[in-house]
Amino acid sequence: MNESVCTLHRGTTPLLVSVPHVGTTIPGALQPRLHPRALQTEDADWHLDRLYAFVRDCGASLIVPRHARYVIDLNRPPENAPMYPGVNNTELCPTRFFTGEPLYREGQAPDAAEVAQRIDTFWRPYHDALRGELDRLRAAHGHAILFDGHSIKSELPWLFDGQLPDLNLGTADGASCAATLRRALAEVLAGQSRYTQVVDGRFKGGHITRHYGRPGEGVHAVQLEMCWRCYMADESPPYAYDEARAAEVRPLLQRLVDVMQAWRPDGR
After folding, report:
1. How far apart are CA 183 and CA 187, in angstroms?
2. pTM value?
3. Which of 103, 124, 157, 181 stands the most exposed, by the fewest C-beta atoms within 10 Å?
4. Predicted local distance difference test score (pLDDT) of residue 268
5. Residue 184 half-sphere exposure, CB side, CA atoms within 13 Å?
6. What pLDDT does residue 140 have?
7. For the CA atoms of 248, 75, 109, 106, what is the dihedral angle to 10 degrees?
8. Parallel, antiparallel, or unpaired for β 144-152 and 15-18?
9. Residue 226's domain spans which residues?
């Protein structure tokens, strides 16, 4: 595994947690080509590595990238097909902020050759590590579960209308995991009233969920898109972590993790 691209904690249960958009590193050679605003990496999934750090003590594996999604989006397919046709999307190598404005200075966006180079340098090593860990877990336990953790500002008109629910569980409309697992996780979310929630709403799961989720082959994948307000007091710079809010949502995340680790394909 290339530790300059990501870190991997190997656990002892069937669960792998990935947080593909927490990275904030932008290579120095790329920085002058970006608008200065981009260097603040405002569209990162802020602090999720900290919020989900508890999963290591639960026996789960955890994979964390180093580089910002502005370098390359690890949750997009390498052929750069849009995740959600018919609405605004950001690309494999994004050229716009989530607000729609351009990331790059005039004429500085990457061409096809540079995108291919970034795939080889950043995207492929992360996915090689992710696939390798899923294969290890499946071999050890007979199945593997991939929990893809994301977070986002609750209002982004360029990407979606209105205010997003606090918690958005995605299973590619049920295709990426067993129905019993989807139902069990949905019941956890529905069984509380502190946070608004939806299953397979606007965010149904990105490339990682859709590509690796193969229930018939023993790999089950789900995505959770969480609004920043669940663990940050203010959804604006400096994007500070709020420990009090994090302490409120963490027990719910723990219950989701507990369900995934206790679940078995045979229902036992």
Report:
1. 6
2. 0.95
3. 157
4. 53
5. 18
6. 98
7. -30
8. parallel
9. 6-262
Cβ 127 vs Cβ 75: under 8 Å: no
Q: Which tokens sit at 115?
A: 């995108």
Q: Which portions of the chain are predicted below pLDDT 50? A: none
**Residues of the chain above pLDDT 70, percent:** 99
CA nearest to 261, candidates 37, 58, 27? 58
Residue among 233, 260, 268, 262 at smallest CA distance from 18: 260
Number of domains forming the structure of the chain: 1
Whether residue 268 lies inside any domain: the answer is no
88 Cα distance to chain centroid: 18
What was the pLDDT predicted at 109?
A: 97
∠ Cα 6 11 12 (to 5°): 160
Beta strand ranges found along the chain (DSSP E): 6-9, 15-18, 61-65, 144-152, 167-170, 197-199, 219-227
- Phi (first) and psi of residue 219, to 5 degrees: -120, 120
* pLDDT of the residue at 108: 98
CATH number at residue 54: 3.40.630.40
Q: How many CB atoms lie within 10 A of CB 127?
A: 19
Q: Is residue 89 part of a domain?
A: yes
DSSP strand pairing (61-65 vs 197-199): unpaired
Contact between 22 and 68 under an 8 Å Cβ cutoff? The reply is: no
Read off the tokens for 121.
Answer: 């340098």
3-state secondary structure of 189: helix
Phi-psi label, residue 70: left if phi above 0, alpha if psi -120 to 50, beta otherwise:
alpha
Within-domain flag for 75: yes
Rounded alpha-carbon distances, angstroms, from residue 209 to 55, 171, 177, 240: 19, 7, 9, 28
- What is the signed CA dihedral for 139, 180, 168, 227, rounded to 10 degrees? -60
In a domain, 250, yes or no: yes
Residues 151/242, Cβ–Cβ less than 8 Å: no
Question: Terminus-to-terminus CA distance in the chain, angstroms?
Answer: 34
